[in-house]
Design brief:
Length: 287
């Protein structure tokens, strides 16, 4: 998710409330979607391509739309399978290194671009289309790996999408949330103008703090202590609101919003995934 949403939301709010222009609601909705998702179609700068993954298309919706996805199976066909959900702006090519780190833990990984991102069809995503995309990808993953345990990972905005998926799907064996937030409403309140009633015109809510109580799957929440965008307190609130019988909050020293996978702090995540989900070997977890 982007700081642009909060920087530019105030004039949008004022335009909708003060001028009440015809069609204003549709315009506000479109602008929210644009600045929350910030979909990137082009390959990430510096991405050189990978040879260890199959690029597949997953049908979604009723209009011929599809998701572009990477399928990276582990050596064993029965290996635990992970659905990877990236955040705003980070399409698959920008997420490649982080995806590789999770694959190295022992998962077979299915990573998707939401509609509007990368090589997927579509234009500007919405909260509802992103949820639909995750459900389509999950169905594909489960049907493709019937003998595996199935997990879902979400970074930032992807964490909100993962929570929505897990609360409605009891096939989820575990969920990993990294640097995610409680709701768009709560994020708006962290800014100086947060006293404004922005919820009156919010169309994209991502209300994870309400949904997480319905997630039964074992829940691992990871957050860098140096995150300057999403407050660490939001992961603490999600942890407190979770009613999962098995849950863990891991706060990582020296890590920010997006760099946990690229620092030595990832060793802490590796150990937590092994201890919490039993994925990967104890030896690999301590390397």
């Amino acid at each position: 998710m982007s700081k642009r949403f909060f920087r530019y939301f105030l004039p949008l709010f004022a335009a909708a409330i003060i001028f009440a222009v015809p069609g204003g609601c549709s315009w506000i909705d479109m602008k929210q979607r644009e600045v929350i998702f910030r979909p990137v179609k082009d390959d990430w700068r510096g991405y050189s391509g990978e040879s260890d993954r199959a690029v597949i298309r997953i049908p979604v919706g009723d209009n011929g739309d599809y998701l572009s996805a990477w399928w990276m199976p582990a050596a064993s066909k029965d290996a635990p399978a992970l659905l990877y959900l990236h955040g705003a702006r980070w399409n698959l090519t920008g997420s490649s290194s982080r995806i590789a780190r999770y694959r190295a833990l022992g998962f077979s990984v299915l990573a998707i671009d939401y509609r509007g991102f990368g090589k997927s069809s579509g234009d500007i995503p919405s909260e509802e289309t992103a949820y639909e995309d995750a459900r389509a990808a999950w169905k594909h993953l489960v049907e493709s790996t019937p003998n595996s345990r199935h997990y879902v990972y979400g970074h930032s905005l992807g964490g909100a999408i993962a929570i929505d998926l897990a609360r409605a799907n009891k096939q989820v064996d575990g969920i990993i949330l990294e640097s995610t937030f409680t709701s768009i409403r709560d994020m708006a309140k962290t800014f100086a103008w947060g006293w404004l009633p922005v919820e009156l015109v919010l169309t994209q809510r991502f209300d994870s703090i309400e949904k997480i109580a319905e997630v039964d799957a074992p829940t691992l929440i990871v957050h860098g202590k140096e995150d300057r965008f999403v407050p660490v307190a939001m992961s603490e609130q999600l942890y407190a609101a979770s009613k999962a019988a098995k849950k863990k909050l891991l706060l990582v020293d020296g890590a920010g919003h997006s760099n946990i996978a690229w620092t030595s702090a990832f060793d802490n995540v590796k150990q937590a995934v092994h201890a919490f989900f039993g994925v990967g070997s104890a030896e690999a977890a301590t390397r």
